[in-house]
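Figure 2 data, in text form.
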Amino acid sequence: NSQYASAWRKAVTYLEASGNGLPKKYDEAGNLIPPTSSEQEAYRLAVKNTTLGILRVRFAVGFFAPASPQIQLKSDMAQWISDNGRASWKQAWNKLLEQYPGDYDGAMAKWVELYPNEVPYTVTESERKSIAPLRYAEEAGYFVNQNKELFKDYPSASGFLIPHKSGFSWDAYQTMKDMGMIYNKRVDDYLREVQTASDLQTYYAKKNDYESKLTGSTVDFERTQLRKEFDQWKTVFFAGRPLVQEELSQGSQKAIDRLKTLDELNNMLAQNLDIAPKTEAKLREMSAAYKRYQAEKDSYDQFGGSQQLVKSLKEDTVIKLRSLASYNENTQAAYDVLFGRLLGD
């Protein structure tokens, strides 16, 4: 049931973050050795016992505590967290997300800098139906309640109009859940995400370093060598981490979701909504700028235009969209999760 599944997901998070997940052993070549059947059984029992322990604690304190118990931060927690009154890893992560509106990657980079060993706590137990970031403050719940038809007609794009207010309201969260905007992850999907969270950050850091060096290189031989070195590293890295490769394969679906959301956003903005007029106007400008870029790029591609011209066009579009995105948190979120990703920024 949902209570057991919720406790199970938390048990997986706690075990992985504390170094008690499935053991990682490597051979002489540095390849990951799959866990034995006895190790898998020991892990299964650890998850089961931890899950039952969480359920017992919930039952014991449920009559007195306003929320589920959480694993507390260590005594050496960063000052910025204690100053904001955060007591658990999840609270700390959610607070950091508020400081990076819509920019999950920026928040993750800062988290890894602060707590490189606590990445599993950044994996959410629920999933959004859309790529638009959702907020669960009271104002957000009221906005959704007042515009239910909008969310039914444009389930992906309408999220870009939700007020970005800090705080959490259970009623707002439940409203969005009842409307199908968010749902609990399957336990097997959650297990894969938690077990690959730290390795994914290693992969992204290596990939960013590779792309940075590639951009800075102007000699074909150097660029060829960089590609060769990265491909060799990637082959060895994935060989011992099949779950990481499986998790990364989800990226193609995200690209499809972005294009679907763009079409839906354009259809939504074509209506005379007048719900958040100024935000809607800025989003229309952003969409128009991206359409101009796409049309000119297609023209260059069709008639064999200079790649330098295409690069310059892209850079100019990025600058224009970044400027428009700075209007408010909603437009910034639209850039961070939609237009910026489409442009590879």
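Caption note: The chain has a mean pLDDT of 79.
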